[in-house]
Amino acid sequence: MEGTELLLAEREIRQVVLRYCRGVDRGDAELIRDCYHDGATDVHGHYRGGGREFADYVVPVLAQRYAATTHAVHGSLIEWEGQAAHVETYFVACHLSTEPAGQAHLYVFVGRYADLFDNRGDGWRIAHRVVLRDWSVRQPVPEGALARELTEAEAFVAGRRDRDDLAYPEAFARRLAEQRSSE
């Protein structure tokens, strides 16, 4: 691959990484599954198994443990080996626990996705992933801090953990149509 074809492949790979993060943060197992090829593997902390099966594992686990999650991707280095791409993506994942006030914590995980991507005719997807932990920290959330945060958050449109989140074009279009019809 070279030239435009290479640039398009790299763009598609970066889009898959971003869709994966959206899927995790929005609790969208279908979107996560679509980031992996059939038969892909994922080594992800205690989870070691199929990539597509990881979606069905992680969504309920995160929903039970965390009120919100946010993944921020900080860059991908893509190195080509034949028709495969070795991709290292830096990320920070922040998780706000579901524990009651006074017991809640913020878990910050900083790491990298070490991925092997290939294109089997249905687009670039993850064939094998290993999550590398560089460091992490759990910080207690002081009692009363969540109440203050909820008061401050009332000025914003709340993010959601489903396909009604405004990150999805269909949800955004519905919201815009509702807003225009109420004007």
* Major sheet attributes: 6 strands, mixed
Termini Cα gap: 51 Å
The outline comes out as globular
Total of helices: 5
* Average pLDDT taken over every residue: 94
Low-confidence stretches: none
Q: What proportion strand?
A: 35-45%
Write structural notes for this entry.
The protein has 183 residues and is an alpha+beta fold. It is 36% helix and 41% strand. It has a six-stranded mixed beta sheet with strand order 2-1-6-5-4-3, with helices on one face. A hairpin with a 4-residue loop joins strand 5 and strand 6.
Blueprint of the fold:
Blueprint: H1 3-26, H2 29-33, E1 36-44, E2 47-50, H3 51-65, E3 66-81, E4 84-97, E5 105-119, E6 124-140, H4 145-153, H5 169-181
Parallel strand pairs: 1-6
Antiparallel strand pairs: 1-2, 3-4, 4-5, 5-6
What's the gist of this structure?
It is built from 5 helices and 6 strands, in the order ααββαββββαα.
State the main characteristics:
183 residues; alpha+beta; six-stranded mixed β-sheet; 5 helices; 36% helix
